[in-house]
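[scheduler] slot 2 assigned
[scheduler] job type: sequence-to-structure, two independent chains
[scheduler] chain ordering preserved from manifest
[runner] begin chain α
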Amino acid sequence: QVQPVESGGGMVQTGGSLRLSCAPSGRTFSGYATGWFRQAPGKERGFVASITSSGGSINYAESVKGRFTISRDNAKNTMYLQMSSLKPEDTAIYYCALASRYYRHTPAYTRGGVYDYWGQGTQVTVSS
C-alpha cells in the first residue's frame, strides 16, 4: 500500500508563493505518474498538474499555466508543486495522487479516475 503524504500548505497573501511537497510512505514512487488536484469549498475536485514517472511529460490546468511548476526528484522520492503569483481563487485543499498505469496519451493523467492512491490533502489559503 502506498500512502502519499502532502506538506507545505499554509496561508499566503495574493502574489505570494508556496511550495508543496508529496512523499509517499511505504514504497518508492519512481514507477508512478503523479498529479496534483485541488478542491475549493463548494466545488468539485479538479486537476492542477501532472508529471509522468520519468518526468518527460507534464500537463497543467489552464488556470495555473505560467504560475505553477510541477517537478519530481525520484532520488529523494518526492514530488513538488511550486506555486507562484498566487490568487485568492487558488485557495483550496491540494491533493497529491499516484497512478500506477502507463498511458501513452499523457493528458489521461488529467483525469482523477486514473489515479490509484490519494493523499489526505494540505490546505492552501490565499488572502486578498
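[runner] end chain α
[runner] begin chain β
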Amino acid sequence: QVQLVESGGGLVQAGASLKLSCVSSGDTSSGYIMGWFRQAAGKELEFVAAISRSGTVDTYANSVSGRFAISRDNAQKKLYLQMNSLKPEDTAAYYCASRSYNTWSRLGEASTYAYWGQGTQVTVSS
C-alpha cells in the first residue's frame, strides 16, 4: 500500500509561482510512474503532468505546458510540481497519484493510477 501526501498549495496572485510537493510512504511509489491531476470546483478531474520512474521522461497537458514542470526525487520519495506564470484558471485542488505499473501510455486517464493523495488547494487571484 502507498500513502501520498501533498503540500505547498496556497493563495497567490496571477503571474506568481508555487511548488507543490508530494511525499510517499508505505510500499514504495518511487518505482512507478507518477502524476499530477487537478479538479476545479464543479469540474471534472483533469490531467496535469506525468513523469517516468527514472524521472527522465515527462508529459504535460497542453494547458500547462511551458509553465509547469514535474520532477521527482526517488531517494526522498518525493514528487514535485513547479508551477510558474499561474493564471486564475489554474485554481483547483491538485492531487498527486501513483501507478502500480510502468507502461508509458494512457497517462491522462485517472483510472490508470492506483494511489492518490488527499489534495492541496491552489487558488490564483486575478
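[runner] end chain β
[qc] chain β: The first strand starts at residue 2 and ends at 7.
[scheduler] slot 2 released
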